[in-house]
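If you are new to this repository, start here. Below is one unmodified record pulled from the training split, so you can see the exact layout before writing a loader.
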Amino acid sequence: MEKDIFSSADLNWLNKNPIQARSIDESLEDSLNVNPLDTGEPDLIPYQRALAAARITIEAATKKLIKGPYDTYHLQIISEHVPGIHSTEKHEHTFWQLFDHHCACFSEEGNNWPKERIYMEAMKEMIRLMNESSLELYANINNEVANLNIGIVQKIKGKGVNAKFAD
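And here is the target side for that same chain:
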């Protein structure tokens, strides 16, 4: 991990949690290995989102919020790391429903990942949606979603990193 991208408190937490630190580092690396720009240079936007997601993940883990509660206080922590999220407050319920969905997807995809990695991957997706102002498009969703991994519509049970697709 690069020392200049994390605060000393973040680095302290990473040093005390080597499994999670390795997982966060892998996620950051994955974000650098996305489609390059037309110039051949790497697209740094996914990496910047991943850095914000990593910082949010570390703060949530430090405050023992990885497993919830997923509420206004939790959203305020996220807003400290993501400019412009304040418009999300009116869509808080939608935000957490989509977060549950992404957690269920990443839990199924990376079933050996620690909860912090699932949280971070889902948070990267949420940051992308917020940056693209796409959250409003999902305002009327319920907990039934298409599980594209197996091609059927399923309900999501559980919240956040404990969300799973129901059988």
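Two things worth knowing about this chain: Residues 3-165 form one domain. The chain has a mean pLDDT of 83.
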